Amino acid sequence: MKKLIGLFYKNLFFNNRLFACLAGSVVLFIFGFFFPWLGIIPRLAFWIVVLLVILDLLMLYRTSNGVFAKRIAPERLSNGDENELGIYIESFYPFNINIGIIDEIPEQFQKRDVWFKTMMKPREHKQILYLLRPTRRGEYEFGFIRVFVKSPLGLISRRYNFEQTEILPVYPSFLQMRKYELMAISNRLTDIGIKKIRRIGHSLEFEQVKNYVSGDDYRTINWKATARHSNLMVNSYVDEKSQHVYCVIDKSRSMKMPFEGLSLLDYAINASLVLSNVALLKEDKAGLITVSEKVGTVIPADSKYTQLNKILEVLYKEKTRYLETNMEALYTTVRRVIKQRSLVVFFANYESLPALQRQLPFLRRIAKFHLLLVVFFENTELKTLSEQPAKDVEGIYIKTIAEKFAYDKKLMVKELASHGIQSILTSPQNLTINTVNRYLEIKAKQKI
């Protein structure tokens, strides 16, 4: 009995409308002291408020289970993307109610204002949708769903608590991966900024002999088949398949730098996942190597159906470390694991020219045996500072330093090009598009 009474008081809340009514009663009592002609009006008003409160209690507590709520969430969340979640709510009251909902989202989001308000008719059910954008991989714990119900009188609220604690893992951006996957399947990669590459020459992969249609290259006409069928026939070629594409991710402290809530490592992981998926769709073989002061995970290139899930599970657990990259260990691993000429996409971050020059001897050795593509990041904050006009001496100093760092980035691109190493200097938000674009360009020009 004591427990039921405790729960009753614990889930009972007074609303502002009740306090306003009580304040009005107090004002009437004060005026009644100075104006005796008011008579019993103050007492009558007070007891009316009391009766309304009792009536409100009966309306809310007459139904034992007046509402039902349930969180609708995916099995996992996508890092850096807007993930859609929902709350299903159903009313069992025979009258209209006003509802306020609190969903106890994980502490990683640092949000204390997740409050949804709605009105529900008798026996109505609704679904409330909202978006969450995680910026860190790992496990996110959701708590209770708390529903506050008000009757049409609106004097008090009854709280319902629905225990739905669950832990959702946040994986690298698989939503972004699916978007690029659909684009690649439908050949609509140009719609998202990936330019169309003019093909040079023909692939060695013969597909079939087909009828000539307007636009086919005259050089592919098969004259023997044309003579047999009395119609122009052409040879059809496809991109070479089963080429090896390795994503190498630097996990050193330079990749810890944040940008729009995500670290550079997270951007590299998301781009690696998308690139691996596109490579598998193009029937190439995708592999992965992670490195910091020592070599981390090594997944040999493969085109099996389970390869993408294997890469996803590995990338889910990767974290930045606090020592510099051991390039000698990386070079040894590349020579040991990658047996044939492959495309090696190295995701790193260089903030100064000497930092690149320390690693350059090993990059040159890797480039002797494989097609090496170095992907590193623009410092967008410094770029913004360099473009702002200086207003004082301090501003001139800051602008000069920012321009110097931006110029160093351009020198890095030239330094790599002078040694025959391709590179991409990109902002974090354009990393995926630029990387996939370059992969398609390399494949179209048959450089692997």
UniProtKB/TrEMBL annotation:
Keywords of the record: Membrane, Transmembrane, Transmembrane helix
Organism superkingdom: Bacteria
Transmembrane segments: 12-38, 44-61
Domain DUF58 span(s) in chain numbering: 208-350
Gene3D superfamilies noted in UniProt: von Willebrand factor, type A domain
KW Hydrolase (keyword) present: no
InterPro entries hit by this protein: DUF58, vWFA_dom_sf
Protein name, UniProt field: DUF58 domain-containing protein
